[in-house]
């Protein structure tokens, strides 16, 4: 038997930041090749882009991410910004 979970925590469960994600529509040198990395890595790469590239970028995840009760597997612009707001803090060793 499965136990149901109700309340605010059910609307936005923890995000699996290690799942695979592709960041697309971002120029890389002379080409526009999707970068496949972890969800955390893709969101951090998106944060380093200029405004025009942030707006054009799309992010596709390995499986759905549930935020405020809605599950999505593809994000663009403000949707990626919502993920960025939820990023876990970087470990001190990663910041150097």
Task: Set out the fold topology.
Elements: H1 8-11, E1 20-24, E2 35-38, H2 39-47, H3 51-56, E3 58-67, E4 70-76, H4 78-85, H5 92-95
Antiparallel strand pairs: 1-2, 1-3, 3-4
Helix pairs in contact: 2-4
Question: What keywords describe this structure?
Answer:
96 residues, alpha+beta, 27% strand, globular
Care to describe what's here?
The chain is of the alpha+beta class. The chain is 32% helix and 27% strand. The protein contains five helices and four strands, in the order H-E-E-H-H-E-E-H-H. It has helices at residues 8-11, 39-47, 51-56, 78-85, 92-95; strands at residues 20-24, 35-38, 58-67, 70-76. The chain has a four-stranded antiparallel sheet with strand order 2-1-3-4. The radius of gyration is 15 Å and the shape is globular. It starts with 7 loop residues before the first helix and ends with a helix.
């Amino acid at each position: 038997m499965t136990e149901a979970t109700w309340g605010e925590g059910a609307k936005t469960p923890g995000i699996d930041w290690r799942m695979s994600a592709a960041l697309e529509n971002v120029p890389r040198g002379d080409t526009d090749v999707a970068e496949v990395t972890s969800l955390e890595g893709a969101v951090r790469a998106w944060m380093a882009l200029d405004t025009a590239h942030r707006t054009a970028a799309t992010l596709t995840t390995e499986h759905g991410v549930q935020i405020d009760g809605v599950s999505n597997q593809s994000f663009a612009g403000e949707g990626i910004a919502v993920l960025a707001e939820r990023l876990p803090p970087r470990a001190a060793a990663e910041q150097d």
